[in-house]
Amino acid sequence: MTRTVWxxxxxxxxxxxxxxxxxxxxxxxxxxxxxxxxxxxxVRELEDLLARAVVGEDPPDDGVAEPGMVLTVRYTDGGADDxxxxxxxxxxxxxxxxxxxxxxxxxxxxxxxxxxxxQRTYQAPNGRTFHVTLLTAVPYGHHRAG
Length: 146
Fold this sequence. Notes:
Elements: E1 5-7, H1 9-25, H2 34-51, E2 53-55, E3 69-75, E4 83-88, E5 99-101, H3 106-111, E6 119-123, E7 129-139, H4 140-145
Parallel strand pairs: 1-2, 4-5
Antiparallel strand pairs: 3-4, 3-7, 6-7
Keywords: Elongation factor, Protein biosynthesis
InterPro entries: GreA/GreB_C_sf, TF_GreA/GreB_CS, Tscrpt_elong_fac_GreA/B_C, Tscrpt_elong_fac_GreA/B_fam
GO molecular function: DNA binding; RNA polymerase binding; translation elongation factor activity
């Protein structure tokens, strides 16, 4: 399944510049060279990311959790004050003003499609199960303006 990646214009430009620099440098000629392999993998990763990117467009303000939305959640396994607000997006989104949660992470994938008030369950990499309730989901641009 191909997922759209939400990027700010700044992050999109940074990734394009990184890709251009990697292409200009070229990988090592040796097929078994670890540095050349990492170089080629990063080029493929950036090409894939940029091909799936939606740049600078806020998702609809419909309260549904999806990439590009700022989510506030409550972890119901903890106390009533155990809330967190983060941008559902990739680290490449380049936001320093908010924590970022990847849509591919256990938490992010559990929240995709959730509406305020819905509880979702996810399993952390350590095997522990968590319950989280979506409190709000607003487009990043609306969060930023608020």
